[in-house]
Amino acid sequence: MNVIFLDFNGVLDTYDNMDVIDENNLNILLNVINLTESKIVITSSNKDYFYRNGRHNEIMNNLINVLSSYGVVVLGYTKKLGSREEEVIDYLNTHPEIQHYCIIDDDYFFESMSDHLVKLTSQNEGGNGLIETNKDEIIRKLHI
Fold it and tell me: Are 112 and 13 in contact (CB under 8 A)?
């Protein structure tokens, strides 16, 4: 199984329009998912609301609903641990069926998993999320 560990802010939204799914960024992600038959695991800090309140916040509901409306399988979330890197490691350790994975993030550098990371320009640096040139890198990281 192929999995994309997906951050939201700085990946699917833009610096100019935060917390709103950008159509161009979404289309790039959907294209990658279709080409690689990948499923999604959410790593976004927005998932923290899920753990605090026991339910999704509006941003996560919107993300899941939009992805689901395109037939994307959202497997779930990483657990809230010390760092996103620890969260992804924990998820991988508990899901041995994952053969290939890619991490898409703009904020964190995954030291031990840099071979699987597509690091986008941070929103704090004016980044506008997923861009067309990221597509080939994601596909390559998924070994397709």
Answer: no
Give residue 38's pLDDT. 97
Q: Which helix (H) or strand (E) holds 109?
A: none
Residue 117: beta bridge partners?
A: 103
Please answer whether residues 12 and 130 qualify as being in contact, where contact means their C-beta atoms are separated by less than 8 angstroms. Answer: yes
- Residues 6 or more apart whose CB falls under 8 angstroms from that of 143 comprise 100
For 6-28, b/e burial (b = at least 16 CB within 10 A) is bbbbbbbbbbeeeeebbeebbeb
Phi, psi for 77 (deg, rounded to 5): -125, 155
Question: What is the band of 59 on the pLDDT scale with cuts at 50, 70, 90?
Answer: confident
pTM beyond 0.85: the answer is: yes
Q: Which two tokens stand for residue 78?
A: 């990483």
